[in-house]
Each structure stands twice: as C-alpha cells, then as structure tokens.
Specification:
The chain is mainly α. It folds into two domains: 101 residues; 178 residues, hpI Integrase, Chain A (Orthogonal Bundle). It has 13 helices and five strands. The strands form two sheets. A three-stranded antiparallel sheet has the order 3-4-5. A two-stranded antiparallel sheet has the order 1-2. The chain is globular.
C-alpha cells in the first residue's frame, strides 16, 4: 500500500517540497495550514473532504484515492447534492473546499526531474454542473427589534449574562461568528483610551473592534462571575460553555451560538430566523441608516472589498429612495 503520509522519493535525494514535517499526513498538513488562518474554514474543509471520500478521518485518504477521482465522479457528487436539496451556496462551498485541496497538491512539483504529485484538478471548471448560486436575503432586525432582544435578556444566571454579552457584542461591533468565538481574554485591551478587542478576520487578517461601555461592562461582569481575570487567564476563551456536558468550560461551537440567538427570538416573539450573521447584518444596516459613510462601514465590518459594503448601502437606498414612491395613481 502506498505511504499515505504523502509520497516517498527513493532515488538519491528526497525533494524537500514533498516532505511533510513530523510525518504528518498530507491532508492534515493542508488543514493545519488553513487552521492557522481561519479555524472555522479549516473545520469546514475537513468535513467536506471526509464527506466526499466517505471516510471517518482524513488520515484514511491516500494519494491514490486523490488521483482516482475523475470529472465524472465530481459531476455525480454535485448532482447527488442537488438531488438531496442542498442549498446552492452549500454545494459551491463543498466544491470549493475540495478544489482547494487539489490546487494545493498541484504545487508539489519538481521541474528538474519532471515529478509531480497530481496532474489535474477534477473540481475545477464545474460551472456547467454546479447550480446557479442564489443569495437569499438574510433576515435582520430593525433598531427597535434589536433593542427589544438585547434589553429583554436578564443577567441573573451565568448563561443569560454570557448570552447577553455575546448578542450585545454582535450588535455593537458587527463581528462575525468566528471572530466572536475565538476571542481570548488576552485580546481584550485598551488603546489610546478606547476599549477594544483584537480579532482575526477572514484570511487571518488581524484587526481591532471597538466596544462601548455597556458591552465592556457585560464582558467584565461575565469574566468576574466565571472566576477569571484578564491578567491570570489570558489564554482562556472569553465565551465558554456552562453545562454539565463535555462543553463545560470549553469554547462554544458555532451551532450553539446560532441556537442561543434563535431561542431568545422565539422567547421574545421576534418572528424572524435570526443567526449571528443576522446580528452582523443588523449592525451594518443600522450604521448605514444613521449616516455612516461607505468607508467607515467597510472598516467597521472588516470587509475586504468596498463592493461588499456597497451591496448593503444599495439595498437600503433602494428602499429609502424608491422610484415607486413617485407613482401616484390612487385617489385620496
């Protein structure tokens, strides 16, 4: 059986580009590199890769398995996902995950000896098979709904206090789910008199998010109630589990965060499908409605492209300054 840790070059010398440090499996090495940039993305990649190759661990996948995949296998895979009713965005993400693995493997080549690990990426150029990508409008809250949600949450229990701090942080900063989950106590600081939190944006970009006094007070009360301090527990994740299951004291997972928000909306009769991204959308929308410039909103949201921010502005302008408002065909 072929060595699944990557590839062995038996002639006189080994190619350093084919050697994986500490004898790590090649896909695990790929995922470890992704993990350094974005933990959530790396976990999604791993799930997608294991699903496609039908294995429990990526270490069970060999280089021969990688080479055996054809465009027909990929087409069948995509059609199968469509038949299962998977969202177009989910299908595109899964194909992108697998394509990224193949693109990474294509780098491992040696021109002097005409050696390469793989020759072709079967997940590339699948636009004719992939479903048309649709962007369903994300539900978000009005300013009044956001205030209702936040102010209705008590702080008597440790979980309610934690959840109120999470929701307040999301509404005030527009932070992404992964950014919130990965905050450690050492990331909370003060710069030039402003309370800020250091976060890691998409593609590993480091950034600062400013928090107001209300959110800072909630966070500090939560830290104190958990018996911790920023000085002595710097490596602790800020938001942790408080149940008797295995998550007690551990970092929250993404699914838990969305469930928390959904439960509160149901409790307070907010009849919308609200997730962490919905709170981010809410924060951006309120900032635009209050007159924040495109440049300020882009920096606030951590958007890499002004085009992404402009989509929010366009959606709001389309409602506030609508051509239909000029059409008067009804009698008074």
């Amino acid at each position: 059986m072929e060595d699944s840790s990557l590839i062995k070059i038996e002639p006189k010398r080994k190619l350093s580009t084919f050697v994986i440090p500490d004898n790590t499996h090649f896909i695990r090495h790929f995922l470890n590199n992704k993990y350094k940039k974005n933990e959530h993305t790396a976990k999604s990649y791993e799930i997608d890769i294991k699903e496609f190759f039908k294995v429990n661990m990526v270490e069970d996948i060999t280089l021969n398995d990688i080479k055996a995949v054809t465009v027909f296998d990929v087409e069948d895979y995509i059609i199968g996902l469509i038949d299962l009713g998977r969202a177009s965005s989910t299908i595109h993400r899964k194909v992108s995950s697998l394509s990224s693995l193949y693109k990474w493997l294509l780098k491992y080549q040696d021109n002097s000896r005409n050696i390469s690990l793989i020759q072709f990426n079967p997940f590339n150029n699948m636009s004719d098979v992939k479903p048309t990508l649709t962007h369903d409008d994300t539900e978000f809250l009005s300013r009044d709904e956001a205030a209702l949600l936040l102010n209705s949450i008590g702080t008597e229990s440790i979980t309610d206090l934690r959840n109120k701090a999470i929701i307040g942080l999301a509404l005030i900063t527009g932070a992404r789910k992964s950014e919130i989950l990965n905050i450690k106590l050492k990331h909370i600081t003060n710069i030039l008199g402003y309370d800020v939190i250091r976060v890691t944006r998409k593609r590993g970009k480091k950034d600062l998010i400013k928090i107001n006094t209300h959110v800072k007070d909630l966070i500090m009360e939560y830290i104190n109630r958990t018996g911790r301090s920023i000085e002595t527990n710097q490596e602790d994740y800020l938001f942790i589990g408080h149940s008797s299951n295995k998550q007690n004291g551990e970092k929250l997972n993404p699914a838990t965060l969305n469930k928390i928000i959904s439960n509160y909306c149901c409790k307070f009769n907010i009849n919308k499908k609200i997730k962490v991204h919905s709170l981010r959308h809410t924060a951006i929308t309120i900032a635009i409605q209050k007159g924040a410039s495109l440049e300020k909103v882009q920096a606030f949201a951590g958007h890499e492209s002004a085009y992404t921010t402009a989509r929010y502005v366009h959606s709001i302008n389309k409602l506030q300054d609508n051509a239909g408002d000029l059409i008067d065909v009804f009698e008074d």
